[in-house]
Design a protein that fits this description.
single chain, about 270 residues, alpha/beta, 6-stranded mixed sheet, 8 helices
Amino acid sequence: MTRSAVSQGIRRLEDSLGIALVQRSTRHVRLTEAGEALHRQIAEPLSTVGAALEEAAVEGPSRGVLRVAVTSIAERFLSGPLISSFAAAHPGVTLDVTVTDDESDIVAAGFDAGVRLGEVIEQDMVAVPLTGPQRQMVVASPAYLAAHGVPTHPRELLAHCCIGWRRSPKEAPYRWEFREAGRDFALTVEPRITTNDMLLMIRTALADTGITIGMEETFRPYIDRGELVSVLDDFLPSFAGFFLYFPSRRNQPRKLRALVDHVKSFAQR
């Protein structure tokens, strides 16, 4: 459709509803609050219609673009083998992966599915396990611990140089979570270095700079090689792992069903 056709269609819709859906200026166009509300309400039904049409029109192997939003700490999904084996098994599907820690609605953001920790997935989503239970680890290099001492309680971290994480510059750094005597508590460590990039956190810890926190499966290769050492293990319990999640749809696109089946088989390895 041309721009003018879209503009005329929107104006007709606004006239029929008696309310502005779009705010316009000479340089920008954006939805009004009413427009955003309407979009949220119709996005999933329209997506379901599109999936049904795709299902009816396409025969044979799965194909098309499959957009997935993946949290940056989902090591099992992002490490390579899962994506590589899926691409080999389904050459007709283009997998478009966006690595993001934004917890926005995947439907509204235009994604077919997402990968997150189970505890932050919305209740109205269908979730398929990608991993078993996970846990965080607190790690540092042997040289750093030799120079500054090994903490024996989480509160001792306040005296150390900590390397922290936060989702965005507008948010406070992540509060490190622990458990003691069956009770959970979070610690504000006031990190000397803060980033939203896990790889930078690892590299900085490897450079003998300080102590950092992250998922066990992310740190495990470095621990096995002796490059990093875990501390405070008794204060770090396990919790529900990562899930592939997506909206509940009666007419699930073949490309999404293919990824769901692949994740199920991969999780069993």
